[in-house]
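Figure 3 (text version): structure tokens given as input.
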């Protein structure tokens, strides 16, 4: 007991010295609005050293942080441009109807002012880059001992990022995307599709459109949906409303319209305290607001869906956009998706 007490003043003094050193370092080299967060990261590094973390663990953290830093730097100049992450098999040959469908879809997305993100390999990934063109393409490659290689369209592009870890790569796929498009593929495509659905269903990622597309008359996605309905939905492993989180089609026009319609009136979302704020391209009519409260009141934990302006806690983000404010129950994500569909049906105001 005495030995423990004698150590406490020494440890307290070390914490004080560490805090003072970090504060001095931050003031000299880390000035800016994120200085507090950088200082917290330094504290975490010091704690890793104190914990005597294994070299392998420290190498993992070091490499992951370096990969994410570089990826954020690459994407930063294009932050205001919407992007879609396209997934599908790397083994799809260029003469396959799914490949051609992916080319057509990516071309239409580019013509709508968007950019595409793919895994930078061959097959559907190359088709996405081929349709969008290198100027509108990002590649997030993964280093594998087999199969994966960078396609010739994005290989020498500055918007190519190479990852060692799947988890850092997946983070960028979702963080930077305003939509997801899935084409037929293997385990990787299924993994990426289910991860996107999981993140959205659990509220760990904002709602975005997820569209599943293939060749005309294809059976890949209808059979996938049949499995989900027969096994997951029928056995109560997901809710009926979760089926609204994705749409599948074999028509490029329908797929593109699904993505673009999602942002017709709706813009983005974020939580402010206990409230969910939906930012809009334009205000809603009183009739639409009444409809939202009538049809979707069950997604509320309290109160009503109300229109408002920017809130102080939003720190000036999108100051000119009108908003909806609601005390969302944080569970009914599928119904919230349907609510956004109704928002996007808002009629265009007639000119005076």
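Below: residues designed for each position.
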């Amino acid at each position: 007991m005495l030995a423990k007490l004698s150590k406490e003043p020494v440890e307290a003094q070390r914490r004080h010295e560490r805090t003072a050193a970090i504060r001095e370092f931050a003031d000299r080299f880390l000035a800016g609005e994120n200085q507090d967060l950088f200082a917290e990261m330094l504290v975490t590094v010091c704690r890793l050293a104190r914990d005597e973390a294994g070299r392998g663990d420290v190498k993992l953290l070091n490499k992951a942080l370096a990969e994410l830093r570089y990826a954020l730097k690459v994407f930063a100049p294009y932050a205001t441009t919407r992007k879609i992450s396209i997934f599908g098999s790397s083994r799809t040959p260029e003469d396959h109807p799914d490949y051609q469908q992916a080319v057509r879809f990516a071309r239409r997305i580019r013509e709508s002012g968007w950019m595409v993100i793919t895994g930078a390999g061959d097959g559907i990934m190359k088709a996405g880059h081929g349709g969008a063109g290198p100027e509108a393409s990002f590649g997030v490659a993964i280093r594998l001992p087999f199969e994966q290689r960078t396609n010739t369209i994005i290989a020498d592009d500055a918007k190519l990022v190479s990852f060692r870890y799947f988890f850092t790569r997946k983070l960028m796929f979702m963080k930077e995307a305003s939509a997801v498009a899935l084409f037929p593929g293997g385990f990787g495509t299924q993994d990426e599709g289910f991860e996107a659905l999981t993140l959205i269903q659990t509220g760990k990622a904002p709602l975005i459109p997820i569209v599943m597309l293939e060749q005309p008359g294809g059976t890949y996605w209808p059979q996938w949906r049949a499995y989900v309905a027969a096994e997951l939905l029928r056995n109560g492993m997901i809710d009926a409303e979760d089926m609204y989180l994705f749409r599948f089609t074999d028509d490029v026009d329908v797929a593109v319209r699904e993505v673009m319609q999602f942002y017709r009136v709706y813009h983005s979302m974020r939580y402010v305290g206990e409230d969910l704020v939906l930012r809009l391209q334009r205000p809603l009519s009183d009739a639409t607001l009444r409809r939202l409260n009538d049809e979707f009141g069950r997604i509320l934990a309290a109160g009503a869906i109300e229109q408002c302006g920017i809130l102080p806690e939003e720190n000036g983000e999108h100051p000119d956009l009108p908003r909806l404010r609601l005390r969302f129950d944080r569970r009914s994500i599928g119904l919230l998706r349907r609510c956004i569909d109704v928002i996007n049906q808002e009629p265009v105001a007639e000119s005076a």
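The chain has three domains: 2-52, 81-262, 266-343.
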